[in-house]
Amino acid sequence: MPTEEKKKVLAVLDDLFFTVKINESAKRAGVPIEFVKSEKDVLERAKGKPALIIIDLNYHGIDPLKLIERLKSAAELKGTSVLGYLSHIQGDLKQKAHEAGCDMVLARSAFSQNLPQIMKRHGGTQ
What we know:
5 strands; 44% helix
């Protein structure tokens, strides 16, 4: 019987606080995670078909909306979910992220609170 490969998660951010939070939740859920900081690296690593790509919509090292559009237009990434997080007061950015193709957009507080469940759901463990 073949062993099921664990689904990987990609995270695109440079915020140390959230890097630690995401890393801890991934470890607890047994989900392999990879942190990337450039659009080129995200697009390259996404070829491995991660279960989830997490994007800090306030990360200035990339254009998050353009990246989401590129990810969602790639045929090989049709089954990959994209989750963005932002400040709760950024309603316009939330709308633009949804329009770009982001599957889920959460306020930072809701993202932090739901991170363990998000990791379990996308890591293939319930």
